[in-house]
Predict the structure of N-acetyltransferase domain-containing protein.
Amino acid sequence: MTSLQLEHKTLPVEDVPLAYKIEIEEYPEDEAATLESLTFRQANAPELFQGCYVDGTLVGYVVSTLASGNHLTHDSMSVHEPQGNAVCIHSVCVAKAYQRRGIARAMLKEYLERVKRLNQASSSSESSGAGHQERVLLIAHKELTGLYSGAGFEMVGLSEVVHGPDAWYEMVYHF
Ligand SMILES: CC(C)(COP(=O)(O)OP(=O)(O)OC[C@H]1O[C@@H](n2cnc3c(N)ncnc32)[C@H](O)[C@@H]1OP(=O)(O)O)[C@@H](O)C(=O)NCCC(=O)NCCS
C-alpha cells in the first residue's frame, strides 16, 4: 500500500493533454494512444476516465470505453458502444517518477469500485451508457498479468489482438 495521499476522480477535460503527456512518455510509441483518441474517450465516456492526483498533480489514470461481446478486439479498442456490457480498459498508466509505489494497484481497486457504483446507481440515463456493465476486459503483456490478477482479474488466455512483437494476454474481471 502506498503512503502517498492519492485523490481519484473523473478526469476533467482540461487534464486530457496532461494524461496524453504521461501516455506518450510511458507507452512504447506504437502502443500509445493519440491525443485524439484520449479526447474521444473523455468526451464519450467521461466517467470511465479516472485520474489519480497527488497534491493536485495528475500522476496516473485508467481509461476505458464500452463494447459488446465477451472478448476484446481491435475494434472494441477504437469505439464506444453506449449499450455495450463490457468495460474495455485501454490504458493503465502511471508517471515514471511515481511508479512502483502501489499507485496502479490503488487505481485499479478504485476503478472497479467506480464501475460497481455506476452499475448500482442505475443512472443509465448517463450519456455514456455506463451503468450496466457485466465485465471489465483488458489485454496485457505477460510480465504485467500479475498486477491485474492481484486486482481480481482472471486470465482468459492469449488475445486475438496482434500488435507488435510480444503476445497479448486477455484478462477479465466479472461483477
Ligand atoms: C504498468 C504500470 C501501470 C504499473 O504502475 P505502478 O504504479 O508502478 O504499479 P504498482 O506499484 O501498483 O505495482 C503493483 C504490482 O504490479 C506489478 N508490477 C508493476 N510494474 C511492473 C513491471 N514493470 N513489471 C512487472 N511487474 C510489475 C508488481 O507485482 C507490483 O508489485 P511490487 O511493486 O510489490 O512488486 C506502470 O509501470 C506504467 O504506467 N507502465 C507504462 C504503461 C503500461 O505498460 N501500462 C500497462 C498496460 S497493460
